[in-house]
Amino acid sequence: MLQNPKRYTITAALPYTNGPIHIGHLAGVYVPSDIYSRYLRLQGKDVAFICGSDEHGVAISMKAKKEGITPQQVIDKYDAIIRKSFVDFGISFDNYSRTSSQIHHDTASAFFRKLYDEGKFIEEVTEQLYDEKAGQFLADRFVIGTCPKCGNPEAYGDQCENCGSSLNATDLINPKSTITGETPVTKSTKHWFLPLDQYDAFLREWILVGHKNDWKPNVYGQVKSWLDEAGGLKPRAVTRDLDWGIDVPVEGATGKKLYVWFDAPIGYISSTKEWAQREGKDWEPYWKSDDTKLVHFIGKDNIVFHCVIFPAMLKAEGSYILPDNVPANEFLNLEGNKLSTSKNWAVWLHEYLEEFPNQQDVLRYALTSNAPETKDNDFTWKDFQARNNNELVAVFGNFVNRVVVLTHKYYDGIVPTPNELNDIDTKTLAEMRAYPAVIASSIERYRFREALNELMNLARLGNKYLADEEPWKLVKENPERVKTQMWVALQIATALSVLSEPFLPFTSEKLKRILGVHPSPAEVIDWDEVAKAETILSPGTQIGQAELLFTKIEDEQIQKQIDKLEATKTANKNQNKTVEPQKDLIQYDDFAKMDLRVGTILEAEKMPKANKLLILKVDTGIDVRTIVSGIAESFSPEEVIGKKVTVLVNLAPRNLRGTESQGMILMTNNAEGKLVFVNPDAEVSNGETIN
Q1: What span, in angstroms and rounded, lies between the C-alpha atoms of 454 and 106?
Q2: What is the 8-class DSSP label of residue 539?
Q3: Is the distance from CB of 646 to CB of 679 less than 8 angstroms?
Q4: pTM of model > 0.70
Q5: What is the pLDDT confidence band of residue 1, given thresholds at 50, 70 and 90?
């Protein structure tokens, strides 16, 4: 692990522009990387926090085909949504670029060309899957089939999402083209491969020996399993037969593009170049100097690309530094189910920002406190509500509000001058001054959940101090003592305003404004000053009026979100529902034998000792008759009285548990499998026939 680096290059995984950002992306990559970058800036470090849209590859082509638009239209649409969402959510990228930009095309092409010219690639003619109906070779994600390792029937041509195995499309059993549904054939095609097997010894030494003690166990373990896999590392194609992407910059490569896994990580480099050009900096030290610390923030599904393949690319090129750490998170699930863009099972960031205005920090807090740092975790709306109401409102917000309100009540909002400190004051301030180092230690070990908990412990320290000291009881009999108490409490509130910035940037800014902190750049309180300064909010400072930092989230707001997810479940069921096949043909005379009438249920009661049956009295227009119906698990007797129904009146009577049933009520099922009455859609008299 690099000690005392001169500068930091922080990368966050490039989001695919085939859909918006959801909470899984935020929890896995963007919130932790933003916390880390903001913390480093507060420490006065030289930071380049880099990201951008990943706009090539099969995911884009698939989305374009599905929506009937061009790939360019897809990337323009989603880049705009993603870019705005990040800005509105407060992700503090120094540069957010696009892999469709000219600077990226030039950078990726030059990178490929250097390796090509130096003979670092293997050129091979291989057999690949080809869709004859579509007239094109099938990239990995355009093929679906049965995984040869776990039997999952919906494995992709590059990876099985069930068992996590890396695959080639030709490995799949019973492969099908996702474009036409046809069974593809194999066809010869020429491509260039990066011989990963030649970098096996380097990767083992660099990771398995060099980073055994400082990389997260989940990352280290996945890399080790890859390196130890039977047969070892194999050459991996860096080009593909595609119609969307960066042209392979060599002769004889017409119609071939750089494979997205090769081009996308180079996007970090091209985005850094773009930033450096704009800021008048030299980009090379951020990628080529040994005193730079490079950290990749990614999700679980990108570990192999950032810990095995991209480092092998950088090693092959020869002039780049390698990542100091790759603190990948595991997956975040949603209400017990795996997040899915294709199934719309997600909480979309741009929708959250509209539905919970000015509550960016609540989501940041919920995602950080429940971050899937070492194992998969589950986001639920009830937990989100509880963390806001019971922690942000009741602990953090409550402390700050009490301090500000009392300062205005006792001193017209002017920070009082303290008198002599007693042991409790001294001990409390010493604890406060310890928090910058404690929180920093957790952040620097990429334990952001732990760091956030320590921040909240600082707020708890403030609440405890006020509760124990009870200045509101002392203010009349010992006003001088209360000045000291309020000064101490205001120091804690100020410490919170500084130390909360990486986690809760909007709250931090609001609290600084209330407390009159940072009125000018010359008076900025940095991270270390909280630990070292005798006073961080000076006596005589005029503070602003109290404002609620957080507001309680009501049950109705949460239920609305839960209902929204339930609607998604229903829509998915409808989309995937298999309709019963048509029954054998009948003649008109067969249908005419049925006497269907409109009726009204007059009475209803449960059949004794029968969970499923209701005994109904139905006015059929012909008569009032008894019908026994198996609907008791879906409806109570009270719910069905007065219902208009469709009745088969000439069904032969049948004895059910001692009651003669003289007909049948027509029912169907809705998308959730619940029974629904088949009714006329207008007011119709009882006894009217249906024909």
Answers
A1: 45
A2: T
A3: yes
A4: yes
A5: confident
